[in-house]
Amino acid sequence: MKKRLISLFVALTMLLCLIPAAFAATFNAGTYTASANGMNGAVTVEVTFSDSAITDVKVTEQAETPAIASGALEQIPADIVAHQSLAVDTVTGATITSKAILAAVEDCVKQAGADPDTLRTPVEKNTADVGDRTAHVEVLVIGGGVAGIQAALDCADGGVPVILVEREATIGGKMAKLDKTFPTVDCSACILGPKMVDVAQHPNITLYAYSEVEDISGYVGNFTVKIRKKAAYVDWSKCTGCGACTEKCPSKKTPDAFNEFTGPTTAITIAFPQAIPKKAVINAAHCRQFVKGKCGVCAKVCPTGAIQYDMQDEIATEEVGSIVAATGYDLMDWTVYEEYGGGRYPDVITSLQYERLLSASGPTGGHILRPSDGREPQKVVFIQCVGSRDKSIGRPYCSGFCCMYTAKQAVLTKDHIPDSQS
């Protein structure tokens, strides 16, 4: 039922090449040559030293020079000389070539009688002059699912400032909707929850939840990003997540997107109990105040006066040096397979909808109940490979995970309903 989208790490360069080294090495002046294996053969470099500095670096030979590596042959030598540091990488992303160049230069440093470790300087400030431009070390992570969360934490723990943008009102992504994970059948929230809290508390992470990237301009090392902060109609600086508004909201038949529409919710809601940030959001399309022009119950019961019916979208601007795209995946349109009855029969549901039925925080409190009549089923059929290995819809490949995923679901079904058949 699912299509996998690979989370692409985009422009993760310039993270270590943005400041001058605190240079403390001395050299045996002269020119030295060394080679190392590259992307398409051996890379040979020629490095010239004075007694206190690297004065010139040249890549003198490479078996082949593919387009992706051409920038590395010029940029890395220039960065080494400019910053007097081996903590640099190519702006092209040709990491195999860049590592080969650095390895060869490191060998030359040793030949010149110096310790290469003295030429590795960590990033210590947010901008630096790189040639005729200013580069930024901040990283933009697009997507607050488990991949984006881990990418943000890894960068932040390394001392790199992170801007994390998530389009939903809470981070966690699809993993937050799962009950258990394969193959250990561990609680999904037990794995994800601590990471979500770490994001909220990390001093190097700025979180934009319920926001979307509107525009990106610039170049590697100097991107300007416009972020649309969508109107939640709740002042999050005042909202405490107490839930008083959700309890009293009279619009109780609002479609619940977090629960994959397996049950209703209120027009003002907090996605789930462990949401980060745990802040309320009003669904204007189903709120009586917006639809009928009268209600205001949530504003009356909010103890902090956080409700703002006149709130508008805002545009925030951030400058970053690198971007990680961790936008995750989505379900295919399963209704194209009419033979299975998806979209026509209420008891034909998706794998994620089944997850929400299994989850204690789901609409049925963790009980597997048929949507049609609310009764416990005795037989559950799992149809695999729907949407994969099918050339007629443009997906001739195997999804690669539905076999083990179905095995997990069958095990959980047996745990919930011991006398059931799957």
Task: Spell out the blueprint of helices and strands.
Blueprint: E1 8-10, E2 30-38, E3 41-49, E4 54-62, H1 67-83, H2 95-111, E5 127-130, E6 133-136, E7 139-142, H3 146-157, E8 162-165, E9 180-181, E10 186-187, H4 188-201, E11 205-208, E12 211-219, E13 222-229, H5 244-248, E14 254-255, E15 264-265, E16 268-269, E17 281-282, H6 288-291, H7 297-301, E18 314-320, E19 322-325, H8 351-358, H9 402-416
Parallel strand pairs: 7-8, 7-19, 8-11
Antiparallel strand pairs: 1-19, 2-3, 3-4, 5-6, 9-10, 12-13, 13-18, 14-15, 16-17
Helix pairs in contact: 1-2, 3-4
Question: What is the gist of this entry?
Answer:
The protein is an alpha+beta fold and about 425 residues long. It has helices at about 65-85, 95-110, 145-155, 190-200, 245-250, 290, 295-300, 350-360, 400-415; strands at about 10, 30-40, 40-50, 55-60, 125-130, 135, 140, 160-165, 180, 185, 205-210, 210-220, 220-230, 255, 265, 270, 280, 315-320, 320-325. Residues about 1-25, about 65-70 and about 90-95 have low confidence and may be disordered.
Tell me what the structure shows.
It contains nine helices and 19 strands. The protein is of the alpha+beta class. The strands form seven sheets. A five-stranded mixed β-sheet has the order 1-19-7-8-11, with helices on one face. Helix 1 packs parallel to helix 2 and helix 3 packs across helix 4. The longest helix is centred in the N-terminal third of the chain and has 17 residues. The two termini are 18 Å apart. The N terminus is likely disordered.
